[in-house]
Amino acid sequence: MRFERLLTQEKKELYANIPFRSATSEIRNPDGTIVFSAADIEVPEQYSQVATDIIAQKYFRKAGVPARLKTMEENNVPSWLWRSQPDMEALNLLPADERYTGETSAKQVFHRLAGTWTYWGWKGGYFSSEADAEIYYQEMTVMLARQMAAPNSPQWFNTGLNWAYGIDGPSQGHFYVDFETGKMVRSETSYEHPQPHACFIQSVNDDLVNEGGIMDLWVREARLFKYGSGTGSNFSNLRGIGESLSGGGRSSGLMSFLKIGDRAAGAIKSGGTTRRAAKMVTVDIDHPDIEEYIDWKVVEEQKVAALVTGSKIASKHMSAVMKACVEATNLDDTARYDPKQNSELKKAIIEARKVMLPENYVQRVIQFAQQGFTEIEFKTYDTDWDSEAYLTVAGQNSNNSVRVSNAFLKAVEQQGKWSLIGRTNGAITKEVDASELWDKIAYAAWACADPGLQYDTTINEWHTCPQGGRINASNPCSEYMFIDDTACNLASLNLMQFRHEDGSFDIKTFEHAARIWTLTLEISVTMAQFPSKEIAQGSYDYRTLGLGFANIGGMLMAAGYSYDSDEARALCGAISAIMTGRSYATSAEIASELGAFPKYKANAKSMMRVMENHKNAALGKADGYSELSVLPVPLAIQDCPDKTLTAAAAAAWEDAVRLGKKHGYRNAQATVIAPTGTIGLVMDCDTTGIEPDFAIVKFKKLAGGGYFKIINRVVPEALTRLGYTENQIEDIIRYAVGHGSLKECQAISISALKDKGFTEAVLEKLEASLENAFDIKFAFNHYALGLEFCKDTLGFSDAQLNDFSFNMLESLGFTKDEIDAANIHICGAMTVEGAPHLKKEHLPIFDCANVCGRIGERYLSVESHITMMAAAQPFISGAISKTINMPNNASVEECGKAYMQSWRLGLKANALYRDGSKLSQPLSSALLDEEDLEEEQITSAPQIVQKIVERVMRLQEREKLPQRRKGYTQKASVGGHKVYLRTGEYQDGRLGEIFIDMHKEGAAFRSLMNNFAIAVSIGLQYGVPLEEFVEAFTFTRFEPQGMVTGNDAIKMSSSILDYTFRELAISYLDRHDLGHVNKDDLDADTIGGGEAQSELVDRVTSRGFIRKQGLTVYSNKNQTATAIAQEPTVATSFLAPASEANLTTETRIQNPQQMPTSNHEMVKQARMQGYEGESCPECQNFTLVRNGTCLKCNTCGSTTGCS
Question: Distance between CA 779 and CA 785 in Å, rounded?
Answer without folding.
Answer: 8
